[in-house]
Records
---
Amino acid sequence: MRNAARNRALMSRHRINYGAASNDEYIRYQSYGLGDPYDRIWEPNITQPIITTTVDIRTDDFDHPPARVMQTAYQSSDSFRISFSLPSGTSYHFTLYFSEISTNVTMDGERVFGLQILNGSQIFGSMTVDLFELYNNTRNKAYIIYAVSPMYIDTAGVASFVFMKQNGSRFGPIISGIELFQFFDNDMSLGTDDNEVETLKHITTFFPSLDIWTGDPCLPYAYNWLTCTNDSRPYISTIYMNNQGLTGKIPEEFKSFKALTQLSLAETSSMDIFQTYHLFCT
């Protein structure tokens, strides 16, 4: 997936495989090579009519879509629309995946469809697609359409992809997969304050039950046992380590957090554990 906005993290909202065999057929990494090389999880969509192939699909594009996704597709005899209800007031990135896998299509012009992308009621982009022609009159090659700039969703809270069979086209539109991502609003290139991160790492070495927590403690989301400030480089503001199976003394390093206003360490065990401790900073 290409960078559509600098220093903004993306959160997956939808990743759909059209033409799945069943509602239980989630696709992710598989060692035999047809699954997702990056272990992305693809939701199944079994909407009929479906076309499939067992022919190897060239998926050497920059996103490397799974071969299993590209070997199936939803194929309409006419126009259709795919819509998603989304949180409004933020921006999104999309990637659409296609491959001409029908042996009935033997020349360009036989499957031609228009594509409109709508952010609410506004047209974000449009194009005409002839997959057979795009790859020099060949089939079984992944073709990707993606947003080159963030798509802002206003108060309507809906993104739609409209596929329109063109006049003279023998076959209707086709789609193999869709990915839809939400941009985080904050610039995340700097991350949480370095000293705060190092202090927290040192504190977690005292408590083995916390060593599963890795990555930036505040971005894109804070660990579920702390909160952070809204600074461009966040600071840790509250820590709630209740019922984490903690033992021993309270590390002095807690005093090093510049913006810490509350520290709660509550345990119910009868072992040598601190019970409840609150630190309020003024």
Note: The two ends are 46 Å apart (CA to CA).
---
Amino acid sequence: MTTDLLQLNTSLIAGIAVALAVLIRVLWNIKFSPLARQGIPGPTYAAVSDFWFQFQTIRFKRVFEIERLFKEYGPVVQVGPNRVAFLDTEPIHEIYRAFPFSKAKWWERGTIGGGQNSVITNDSVLHARLRRWHAAGFRGDSLRRTARLLVGQMNELVQRMHTLDMLGIALFDTKFEQIRTRQEHPAIQYNSDILVDQALRTSLPETIFSFIKLLPIRRLRQVFTADPGLFELGAKMYDELPDEPTDSEAINIMGAAKWSTDPATGKMTSRNQVLSEMAIFVIAGTDTTAFTITYLMYELALRPRLYDIIREELRQAENQDAIYDIQFLRSIPYLGAVLKEVLRVHGPASFYIERTVLPGGIRLGGHFIPEGVEVGFTAHATARNKHLFPNPELVDPERWIVQKDGRWIEREDVPLADMNTAWLPFGSGLRACAGRPLAEVEILLTWLQLWPTSELASTKAQPPSR
């Protein structure tokens, strides 16, 4: 009996101790922590723990919930015990174009094939080297060569629009043959599954994530095979490349990465490093481009006037061959403004992107933010800032341009600088999306093949499902 009472008392004391520890932690988070003392508005449940934030992440609803909090609490809101989200352009400019910040710690867990890549690395030297690889494939002669190859795919593309073949040409100088075979390439399924993998990997505690990976659930097992599967596909293409370039005209991004050397050491880049980087481009460049093309078609069908203006601009081109030149397409003001609006309203990758405040803290959005706090924004919410974009859900290219003397020019009566800062479908600053030029090529050339012979019509006002 005495032993039983002793065990009961020990268990009771342990339970009380745990309850007190939790209570103290909760009080610390909502009243006494360095961030709590700044008086930043936000829901109490977000300040108590990261459970709400992580739950919204695995539901893929985080950006929409943060937008809701902005509407309720204002342009600065606490979204976790150590997290603050911003809506206005001034703090966003500071966070993503200045340097007193590092990438949030959870980014380090977003590896592919166990390797670092330009999206997750906190190493500025490595990041700069990776961006140098990308630059060769996403500009100048390489991009023009890619555009010429893509034009050759367009007749088939009209029948079955898909972007993976385009991506394959630019990244690997090969096609995944989805257009010809009408069959889904394994990379497409891997791409869908790896997003779920990454959401779980980066938002859940490591112990819980490791436990989930062991569960005998078929769908989860499929999700967790995406990382090694995509890595293996890349490895096959990597190994087929020669050890040295044989034709400078045919250098693709994977080749440029394989054959590059570290200027500091003179050593070749590791195989795993290259494969991790290529996987990032496949993930970032597949569904996102198709998503944008879908919404571009939807908005043009919904607003025939926009479609008619663009078609007339293209018809007036003195040299019809020039309309297949990407530089010419970028120079068409109304087409550019329509695409800009579609990307603003229907951004394909509206993630919540965080940075960590470095020692010393910083003042942002009228509040002092202590060191170690994770600060961020969501492009979905900034694109709906009513102070910059009245009627924000409407795709209105004329919020950017106005017609004067028969030409479309940039407006001078709106805050274009702030609007451009809040326009973030490709990110901002040094960490902006390296593949933006290729995405524009894919979208514009796909649409270009449709406009001479196609009429668009909307059968209902409901937009495509997100």
Note: The chain has 23 helices and nine strands.
